[in-house]
Amino acid sequence: MLKVPEHQVAGHIAKDGKLGPLVDDQGIFYKPLQGDARGENEAKFYESFSSNKNVPDNIRGYFPAYHGVQLVEASDGSGQLPHLALEDVVSGYVKPSVMDVKIGSRTWYPDVSEEYFNKCIKKDRETTTVSLGFRVSGLKVFDHEESGFWRPDKRVVLAYKVDGARTALRKFVSSNPLADSVVPDCAFASEVYGGSNGILTQLLELKAWFETQTLYHFNSCSILMVYENDESVDDAPRRARVKLVDFAHVLDGNGVIDHNFFGGLCSFIKFIKDIVESSENCCENGH
Amino acid sequence: MHLKAPEHQVAGHIAKDGKPGPLVDDKGRFFKPLQGDSRGEIEVKFYESFSSNTEVPAHIRRYFPVYHGTQAVESSDGAAMIVLENLLSKYSKPSVMDVKMGSRTWYPEASEEYIQKCLRKDARSTTVSSGFRISGFEVYDHKELSFWKPDRKLLNGIKVDGVRLALRKFVSSNTLSDTSSKPDSAFASSVYGGSNGILTQLLELKTWFENQTFYHFNSCSILIIYENESIQDGDARAQVKLVDFAHVHDGNGVIDHNFLGGLCSFINFVRDILQSSDDQSTQD
């Protein structure tokens, strides 16, 4: 039985009879193949990536597992349509906080249409893409006081400037994201961002690969960050996880590194690192 | 003060049609005319800030020209000039390359007109595709015993393969103007490799760029220099220097991801040439 995913924070949503992704109860995420070249390009990427022997095993874990293209009943009632069958990266989480961050100081790339270029560069300049090398696309964060999710509107998120992005990254690891007038407590910063299995460690592993890989250019791709909030089990681990998603605009690297993604990733890492360090200082000062 | 035009300018402004260009003296100093509009002001502001910034580590300071303040120079009609270290004064036969770093040369604070001009130039060159472009270079030909410079127009149209070829020619000893012979990359390991070579220096710079949030080095170049007089004995005296700070802005707590991405890409190009030349020499 297929249903609309609960935890989508960015991208198309299968709501109100619109075409969008679906999930089953076996941990599979079905993404409808978009009509134009994008769906084809994404499938082509997954085919190439899943059989590429030059991708190290530890890096493969940062990408959703690929289960081919399958015919599935579309969410808008238009019948059986080809869908990309992927690992549902949030299945197995009870109450996940999720954040989608688009990496790179530009979302356009050489040889795109003038129309697409103008659309992209306008958005890149209006958001933090140009200034920070990344932008927050969407997020939902569990609030432990209200027992509900903070899910800012897409328009609010796209209007973030540098401070807004920083605050969102702090709220992402806070127990009180819904409290507007209070400073985010960054209660989970060291468990989620820090630690030997935390987000920062994973990002640094990805960074090392991006310093030399010339296989793919991940134009307009996002990094998804997920962690668990369910406290029904004592000392439940946060299980913070980084995944790369959205490969509709990936191109061959042709012997050149993905300097656009790499620069943005390094900038993102610096932001996370600063939050970890300031939260560690907070604890030392007894706040 | 005896001033003359510098011998080995490979990019940037030169004295032409009555407009002032840079000058050098015989005491190892380089005089750069203060560019009109705000650029000259920005460059001075950067040098003032940088030279007194105690948080810049000593091993990074070596990658920047020493600043000697500003001075009015008579031979240029009393025009104000920035006085810098002449990076080439200690070289007798330097090969020099100017590489503009970053996948974009524009920045948010610039005027719309400037942004559009840069976007066009960036797209036409290897800036967008590779994260850097070669602005110019001059290399000593050990067979012809003279300096060779590629045609400026030719350089503007090169693509990724052209960049690789230029980086190989830059460290070759064979006749450079002869396009039929392959560059021998004879000096690749002396110049690019080794514990004091270009690659080592670039990697040191990269580490600093992964954390520094003081400055955004928009449109800056990396200059690569080495000595031809001693290179046959394996002594390259290779040096990396950052130059051209007319568009530098405050980092405001954000790293210079634009420069860093381009620098990392450039490092890969240099490393590839070094490795393929190492492979070649083990096969010979």
UniProtKB/TrEMBL annotation, chain A:
Protein name in UniProt: Inositol polyphosphate multikinase
Encoding gene (name): LOC108823938
Family of the protein in this entry: Belongs to the inositol phosphokinase (IPK) family.
Swiss-Prot/TrEMBL keywords: ATP-binding, Kinase, Nucleotide-binding, Transferase
Reactions catalysed according to its record: 1D-myo-inositol 1,4,5-trisphosphate + 2 ATP = 1D-myo-inositol 1,3,4,5,6-pentakisphosphate + 2 ADP + 2 H(+); 1D-myo-inositol 1,3,4,6-tetrakisphosphate + ATP = 1D-myo-inositol 1,3,4,5,6-pentakisphosphate + ADP + H(+)
Statement: the UniProt record of this protein carries the keyword Transferase: yes
Gene Ontology CC annotations of this record: cytoplasm; nucleus
Job of this protein: Inositol phosphate kinase with a broad substrate specificity.
PANTHER family membership: INOSITOL POLYPHOSPHATE KINASE, INOSITOL POLYPHOSPHATE MULTIKINASE
EC number: 2.7.1.140, 2.7.1.151
InterPro entries linked to this entry: IPK, IPK_sf
Recorded GO MF terms: ATP binding; inositol tetrakisphosphate kinase activity; inositol-1,4,5-trisphosphate 3-kinase activity
Any Gene Ontology biological process: inositol phosphate biosynthetic process
Pfam families: IPK
UniProtKB/TrEMBL annotation, chain B:
Name of the molecule in the record: Inositol polyphosphate multikinase
EC number from the UniProt entry: 2.7.1.140, 2.7.1.151
Gene Ontology CC: cytoplasm; nucleus
Catalyzed chemical reaction(s): 1D-myo-inositol 1,4,5-trisphosphate + 2 ATP = 1D-myo-inositol 1,3,4,5,6-pentakisphosphate + 2 ADP + 2 H(+); 1D-myo-inositol 1,3,4,6-tetrakisphosphate + ATP = 1D-myo-inositol 1,3,4,5,6-pentakisphosphate + ADP + H(+)
Biased composition (Basic and acidic residues): 14-26
Disordered, as annotated region: 1-26
InterPro entries: IPK, IPK_sf
Keywords: ATP-binding, Kinase, Nucleotide-binding, Transferase
Enzyme category, top tier: transferase
Function description: Inositol phosphate kinase with a broad substrate specificity.
GO biological process, one term: inositol phosphate biosynthetic process
A GO term for molecular function: ATP binding
Record organism: Raphanus sativus
Family per record: Belongs to the inositol phosphokinase (IPK) family.
